[in-house]
Amino acid sequence: MDKFVINGGKPLVGSVCVPRSKNSILPILASCVLCRETVTLHDCPHFSDIDNMLELLSILGAKIEKGHKNIHIDCKNITNCTLPDDLSKQIRSSIFLLGPLVARFGCARVSYPGGCEIGARPIDLHLKGLKALGTKIDEKYGKIDCYAHKLVGADIHLDYPSVGATENIMMAGVLATGTTRIFNSAKEPEIVDLQNFINSMGGKIMGAGTDTIVIEGVGNLHSTEYTPIPDRIIAGTYLLAGAMCGGDILIKNVDYAHIYSLLTKFKDAGFDLNIKDDNIRLRAGREKKSFGKIDTMPYPGFPTDLQAQTLALQCVSNGVCVVTENLFETRFKHVPELIKMGANIITKDRTAIVTGVKDLYGADVSATDLRAGSALVMAGIYAHGQTTISNVHNIDRGYESIEKVFNALGADIKRV
Length: 416
Fold this sequence. Notes:
Blueprint: E1 4-7, E2 12-17, H1 22-31, E3 38-41, H2 48-60, E4 63-66, E5 71-74, H3 85-90, H4 98-105, E6 107-111, H5 124-132, E7 136-140, E8 143-147, E9 155-157, H6 163-174, E10 179-183, H7 189-200, E11 204-206, E12 212-216, E13 224-226, H8 232-245, E14 247-252, H9 260-268, E15 272-276, E16 279-284, E17 293-295, H10 307-314, E18 320-324, H11 334-340, E19 344-348, E20 351-355, E21 364-366, H12 370-382, E22 386-390, H13 393-396, H14 402-408, E23 413-415
Parallel strand pairs: 2-14, 3-13, 9-10, 17-18, 21-22
Antiparallel strand pairs: 1-22, 1-23, 3-5, 4-5, 6-8, 7-8, 10-12, 11-12, 14-16, 15-16, 18-20, 19-20
Helix pairs in contact: 1-2, 1-7, 4-6, 5-6, 6-7, 8-10, 8-12, 10-12
């Protein structure tokens, strides 16, 4: 397993371009199963989660051609509806393939999905939506078997605005007969991106970004070329790193509206922030003011995927910040690692009380999950001395060569 060795205490200066969104590309790749013609995705980054999804599609029978940044996906000759256990358990987004496979072939078999261990992420809402469209589901021995003679549009109310369930139902409803309506749907930008991609293939979806999505079933989809949206979580990570480590950082290719909840916190804390078109410039010194309170919420609230990185910043901000994690019950695994580095954090249930300290110190820590890992990279860049981060494969799931990005900004990180 690779490790990062970081020599800290260096400010970050320079510019960085945000890659396309992992959380958009994964369901978009799954929805390619719905199309019998070739699809081209432009400007795709090399994340391990994306590589795993492409391998899943290849195992199903898709033909994949990868260029430097473009991916060509031809799902015409898919014949296999069973996903292998090993990859399904590595990548949670394997569950996205249920809806497209059932919609096109009337069957699908998948193991319960894996991914980061950040708490219970039940798939009951995914299955509820597929059942409402006419899918019979059998759950035994850790497998999910789905069968459907014909999918028929239905009204589906989600008890919680689950992003994954919303996306799965959208994809299944595209080839269903009649109209499907999703009430209390998730509103994330990635939902809008999936709608726009499917519509570019001839789908008829309306309402993404609101709490009601309407899907008019169509007979088939056609080829398309598409560029996914920028990754708002990576953009937020770079901004938080710049704020934590000090310096002058320019973030390019970012939709500021997608991270407005974070930018509001920066402005309230008095950071020097300038937004122009798709660029955001942040200038910061070593002294910074606490955000005071963070509550993670579904979009457009504060994103859970930026909670760990924000908490890292609060560790070295003046004052006390109360961080409440409302989405996942075990998403504070980075806290013991930050405490090893000198952070002052008290946790109880889903709340962390962070009292800012002046200095952090290098230590041996572990990236327990994707976002926790990026938070530890930030802390290592800030800290005095040397930090070693193990399990960096978790970071590679959603960041492309994060060490090279930060080194270009002045950090000192080696992958060993």
